[in-house]
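FIELD: query
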Amino acid sequence: MKKLFWIWALVSVLLIAFAGTSMAGKTALEEVYSAKTIVVSTDANYAPQSFLNDKGKLEGFDISVAKEVAKRLGVKVKFITPDWDLITAGKWGKRWDISIGSMTPTAERKHALLFTLPYYSSPAQFAIHKDNSSVKTLADLAGKRIGIATETTNERYLRKDLSIEDVKIVYQNWEPGKLITYPTDANHIEDLSLGDGLRLDAIFTSRQTLAEAIRAGCGKGCPLKMLGEPTYYEPLSFALDKSRADSQTLVDKLNEVIKSMYDDGTLVKLSEKFYGTNLIPTL
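FIELD: result
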């Protein structure tokens, strides 16, 4: 009996070890298929890319793209909304599989993240309060207080520390007086809306975010106006955790999905639906 017990104990240990090795050997793509769900991180306060509608459910361009990606993978989609700086830092610990949140694949972020092909592009835009009459050109923003979302490419641009592959960055020849950072773009839009020069003199975000804020009224009126032309256009991609083993398998599959959505016109239709224009780059 004692010998039989030890045999069964040894067999059990070997089976557990084999199962663990089998799980550890799965690629990121295989883990998504095994879970039958892809967990997507995004922003719940970033209209029209992603936002909570009147029913408390996520809606927007990025949300629709994520749902279509899951559909084409044949899995369900689950959304979570961690802080942006946690997403860009990498080392997600498999808490989510992918970020579909309008992220630019900068040289700095590539130290921690992997990126897919771009799925759309975004123009960067300044805005001022509509009551302002002294700021007429971008150069007039020299020495002004400018609101910016933290850890974004727009912040890097104003700090003159932005690097995007295949994108020529031309910086302004003036310096802001002070950059005031916020958790999200919605926060600095709200502060500028409070009054001209009250908390901010200007803000810097994506043109489509400003357009949506002005259209939707920022909750209670949105007395803002865009200033000048976009300073640069940035490609936007899905992001994955570089520290996760065999993540390239998932990147490759997602690139196939992006290409299929480009080829059949799905991305263009979604861009026109949420932005009123075609922001989809040629692949």
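FIELD: remark
The radius of gyration is 23 Å.
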